[in-house]
Amino acid sequence: MDSIQSLDDIDPLIAHELLYTGSSPAWTCVSDPRFCYFLYIPRNYYTLPKTTGSLNLIVLIHGSGRNPYTLRREFSSFAEQHGCALLAPLFPVGLIDPQDTVNYKYIKYKDVRYDRVLLAMIDEAAARFGRIDTSRFCLYGFSGGGQFVHRFAYLHSRRVAALACGAPGTQTLLDWERKFPDGVEDWQDVFDAPIDLQAVKDIPTMFVAGDRDTDIFYAIARGRIREDQRGDEEVMAKFRDGRYGATTRLCKNWQQVGVKECVMVGVEGAGHEERPMLESVKAFFERFINTKRDEATRG
Q1: Which of 14, 108, 126, 223 has minimal Cβ neighbours within 10 Å of its Cβ?
Q2: What InterPro entries does the entry give (predicted)?
Q3: CATH number, span 15-166+196-212+261-291
């Protein structure tokens, strides 16, 4: 297989014509062609200093609807305005298990480590576009994406510069008395890696959900609540007040273990819908990106 070539030295007009800047077509993940990803590279890319760190990176993780291109479009103006690249992976339905719709949310399934697939995509983006700082990045996901991103943060906490976790349907608490996926008691056995708790505590984090996202049918439909469990208070406590309640409890868990900056944002009047969450997410990332850009300028 041919190696990935840098696109840093080509004519900017040619780069634009070939869709290397702006919204690119889907890139195949070279390290695992079962996956692909969508990039957004700001149109002023070729005017930036030719040094790593000229451009921040935001990684956008889709939910069950697999909408990476829509997420990219929602953030494209933000990327142009604030000087950052976007990467949105596509984790397809039916990989290995023809009926699968959820495995990526739990990071690992059989021989697939979705976290490593994502990191490979990020490395490939850096190989093509060397001005992007991929050492640390902002990470966002909603619903199924919210499940992925908070678990990813446990595994790769030093890579996550800021985390926005929206309304995850299942949650892995920092609870060493519960087994995965509810807790982290057997985390080392599941992932063959420890949790760097101090690094997790250092991640600026925003949890976000609609304050009307309180229905529990999503859990019934996905078999997380069986018919014979509906009277079981212990089982039902996990789903009290739907995804909004669960997101709030996850946030409180992080606060209790000592995450330094961890806030819960309830979006007034919103149910389980992503778009109303995005302004809060952008405002959160904007503060971080501007701080990082100012530090780079001073350096």
Answers
A1: 223
A2: AB_hydrolase_fold
A3: 3.40.50.1820
